[in-house]
Amino acid sequence: MMTPSAPRAARDAPHVLIVGGGGTGGALAHDLTLRGLGVTLVERGEFTSGTTGRHHGLLHSGARYAVGDPDSAIECIQENTILRAICPGSFEENDGLFVAITDEDMAYYDDLVRGCKECGIPIQELNTDEALRLEPMLNPATKAAVRVPDGTMDAFRVPMRFLATAKHHGAQLFNYMEVLDLTTHDGAVTGALVRDQVTGNEGEIPADVVVNATGPWSGSVARMAGVDVPIVPSPGVMLAVRGRLCNMVLNRMHRSGDGDIIVPQRALSIVGTSSWTVEDPDDLDVPEDHVRRMWEEGAMLVPAVAEAGFRAAWSAARPLIGSRDADSGRELSRTFETIDHADEGVEGFVTITGGKATTLRGMAELCGDVICRKLSVDRPCRTRSFVTLPHTAYYADPERKLA
Amino acid sequence: MSERPGPTGAAPGEHRDERGPVLRKGVGVPTSGWFDPRGRALGGFAFAANRVTGLGLVFYLYLHLGVLSLLLRGEGSWSDFLRIATSWAFLSLDVLLILGILYHGLNGIRVALVGSGIVADRQRALWWSLGVIGTIALVVSASHIYGSR
Amino acid sequence: MSTMGTRRFRVYRYKRGDPGWRFDLFVVPVGARTTVLEALRWVQRHLDGTLALRHSCLHASCGTCGVQVNGREALACVTPVEDLGATITVEPLANIPVLTDLVVDMREFVDRFPDEIAITRRSEPLPGAEPPEGIDAYERFEDCIECGLCLSACPVSATSDGYFGPAALAAAQRLLEEPRGVDPERILGWADDPLGAWRCHAAFECTAACPSNVRPAERIMALRGALGRRAG
Asked: Model ipTM?
């Protein structure tokens, strides 16, 4: 595994402005700096404060999509393997279980096993005793389980590794910098008008290409350029209870449904999630009935959830690609897409959207390829094998020795 | 990077590397940060009280030396002093002094035991048990002091 | 949110270039479960878009939303407004330079840590649990979420910029408890500094403020014990 040093961008290298400092924007900043492009990234709040930071921390094996959405499943298992190699020490690598509690769950068993095999997701089939030995707090009515390579990631710190690495290779990264509007000239996007929340000052940042990496906000940012992006913000509720009730990620063996996952995080257990659609991702409720559902469904997997102390309940909006006719959001695909708006007559503007936390690097590779083609830059992606710096390197003095 | 500087003339992203103002707890001057009447837990209160009693005892020491120096001026000035020294107000100050000594000494023992890693994690138990000892000692001393009058 | 009344929030404001800081007053509708962070984000969306806030996970896992609420350190995302009184004062963390409004610049906090820190460790075993085939032992993240509440609460850091601080020293002690390939001698040498383990005065404010059960004060005392045995 090499960690070659990356040269800083040449003075005349093309300059890309990335709007959005979540996992996608961070991974893209890292990808483009390694290809020698000049990169500026602006994020209106703290990095990952939009949607990325709020997820339960699942390092996805893809098994949840193996039956209904095999494209997503394959993306997930590939990125899962890559992430463990390029962000070593940043995951709880305890694997996960798909657990069948009822007969209805068991009806899904064969489909799950076949789907995982077809998508290249390594599995191990377990009986009740074996499952309970691995996770003694599981519902004793467990009928069977399938082990999958899930893991837990720190939703804030893993993207920060990408940002730290990009920063050390010369990217200009600004949190607390809000995009007020995109600047255009002759129908092409030429940069952005920003407000620096640190000083209160406004100014313009010019760029050869502006990338919209704002997740659920992709629609509103795209509108600044006069284009439409088929993004449906789709929130879900999560519940954190006190106590580390499992070490492996526990999934309910059925098609996606409410409260069908428990992810351990330090001394908490996170039960998720639900799904509905909204217009405005800034205005998210935390519906009480959804929280109650988390308690109930969580207790189906691990009965001790019912007695556990409350820590937090919150909502996060998934960026789902698809038609606005979707009802709950669960029908939409979890794959990702790069849209070059030159196809609609708007030059200098690209949107990267959809996806999941686990696929951040893969999304950036795809988008990086599109951007390089646009700019006639012939540089391949290097992020598959480049070990990222620790998250603390974001703040460290570049001259300071890093562990 | 900017073509339109803002009200202070700075471009967006400028001044980020400067060190901003630092909030300190405590009243007034930065070095008083340890003396913060708001928001302290038990341990913080104990720490601040240790410093206050420490300063108080140092002040008392100088006062005491000053008083003793009256002896150099002969029996008359010493007898004058003794008359004040047996008043209620003065005896009460003596009790306050004993409180300060007991607190500082016993809390100091707690800090020494905890701080050297000998009893690192039983500090609450130490606080309360030494507190009981100290309270008994204070009541006994106070009754002797007032009783002698 | 279902409203159950309003509260007044006194919020510290500062932008670079301002002559000094000030407090802004906001009246915010709150419900039974509203947290300080939710109230502040409501202010950001409806009253003042220039208010800068730091947050990420919304469940006490990332450590980014540390502030002082009515003088006590807290993670805003898990601090309910309900028991806080009619007027709630929110200020940035103490002893760390302010970047803007309630956001502090974590550089100086992170810089204090020793070079070699590990964020994953052995997990405490659940009774009777065995790890699956191919995995030696279950692992988990360290408790410390690098929130800075301990440094803000520490009365010694209030008067000394150079003090390594509770989080860094606790992290070092964790490396002595579970080395993970780090040479203990290096850690002890790093901690054996007048501004390191010896600067602590046992106020225990750090342990009281820690939202993640790191118990830094107890760990600093244990570190001192280890240093004492090393010398003798």
From this structure: 0.95
